[in-house]
Specification:
four-stranded mixed sheet; Aspartate Aminotransferase, domain 2; Aspartate Aminotransferase, domain 1; 37% helix; 2 domains; alpha/beta
């Protein structure tokens, strides 16, 4: 008999009833150090006072009106994002997949507005993950995501990651846009080299193709910059964000320059709940925290401490781990053992991590985590690694 909840996820045998900062407590009263942040979502930890206050205050005033009317909180959040990014305009959604859907539509509509509807192809990269809608799994193209869901949507082509020659060969008069994750997340925490991103920007400028960046997982301060592309000194034409922008409340956005969004007039896209007063009240609070003086400097400081601790684990348990990669507080530990075994051993040790592609253990703590909590997390990961190493 099927579960009342559709069994689309392999769920761990625990459920949580409360959280505070970087800690979660399950229904049996056990405390876990959260090094997964709900897959890079709870950037300010659990039950952050400023987010709780923003949500509670808005809940007592107004929950929903729809996008048939002005939404003051939506306008306020848009202005904060415009002030801190390349963007001139944006569309608010409920998730990263929806933000990517808007980005794809925006790029194709741009070329339609230019009188070039033949420019509809979207180039993506192997190992990418942009969501689980039909369009976004078609963009990724991997069998894991697409098997059983055919026919896929046409117009997407996957290229080897970080291969400028492949991009150059594929860019022709039918390409609307190139989509990249500055740090490939689900595929195994693989940062794309700054030189590649700069070269990609230059190729798009030369050919007219729009550059879409997926910063759903890497954005909102996770790499030590507000958005990861800033490390390379470039800007996209369109960018999808989600996860951290809501701090745990469902929220996503598609950001764009005015030029890239010129085809998106009334009726071209929409959302019943996207950018509702509750979500945008929380989003404004998250933006205020993450852009406050000293916040990103803290991320940089603690990420160095975390990296050092993880490198120590690799040296101590060479039969369990092979290397550490990533940037900021978006770190992957490549495993010699099955990463699922490390995740499971972590449960026993009281620490939560996230499996990723290429047999990587993703470490994605809250951005306001303390040095002491990082030390505790390293100790617990060490306990988990010791238990895995001792297995026959």
């Amino acid at each position: 008999m099927i579960s009342s909840i559709m069994p689309t996820c392999s769920r761990a045998p625990m459920g949580f009833e409360k959280g505070a900062g970087s800690w979660l407590t399950d229904t049996d009263g056990r405390r876990f150090l959260d090094f997964g942040s709900g897959v890079a979502v709870t950037v300010l930890g659990h039950a952050h006072p400023r987010l709780v206050a923003a949500l509670t205050a808005q809940a007592g005033r107004l929950w929903h009106t729809s996008n048939l009317y002005q939404v003051p909180n939506q306008q306020a959040l848009a202005e904060k994002l415009v002030a801190h990014t390349f963007a001139d305009t944006m569309f608010f959604a409920n998730s990263g997949a929806e933000a990517m859907e808007c980005a794809i539509k925006c790029a194709r509509k741009y070329w339609h507005a230019e009188g070039r509807p033949e420019r509809h192809r979207i180039l993506t990269f192997e190992g990418c993950f942009h969501g689980r809608t039909l369009a976004t799994i078609s963009a990724a193209g991997t069998e894991k995501l697409t098997k059983g869901f055919g026919p896929l949507l046409p117009g997407f082509e996957q290229l080897p990651a970080a291969d400028l020659d492949a991009v150059k060969a594929a860019l022709d008069g039918t390409v609307a846009a190139v989509v990249a994750e500055p740090v490939i997340g689900e595929g195994g925490i693989i940062p794309l080299p700054d030189a590649f991103l700069r070269g990609l920007r230059a190729l798009c400028d030369k050919t007219g193709a729009l550059l879409i960046l997926d910063e759903i997982q890497s954005g909102m301060g996770r790499t030590g910059k507000l958005f990861a592309h800033e490390w390379a000194g470039i800007t996209p034409d369109i960018m999808a964000i989600a996860k951290g922008i809501g701090g745990g409340f469902p929220l996503g956005a598609c950001l764009a320059t005015g030029e890239a969004a010129k085809g998106m007039g009334p009726g071209t896209h929409g959302s019943t709940f996207g950018g509702n007063p509750l979500a945008c009240a929380v989003g404004c609070a998250v933006m205020d925290e993450v852009t406050a003086d000293g916040f990103l400097a803290h991320v940089a400081a603690v990420s160095g401490h975390l990296r050092q601790g993880l490198e120590g684990l690799v040296a101590t348990y060479p039969d369990v781990f092979t290397l550490v990669r990533g940037t900021g507080l978006m770190i992957g530990i490549k495993c010699r053992v099955a990463n699922a075994d490390m995740v499971s051993a972590g449960y026993d040790a009281g620490i939560l991590t996230v499996p990723g592609g290429d047999n990587v253990l993703r470490v994605l703590p809250a951005l306001n985590i303390s040095v002491g909590e990082i030390d505790e997390g390293i100790a617990r990961l060490g306990t988990a690694a010791q238990r895995v190493a001792a297995r026959p």
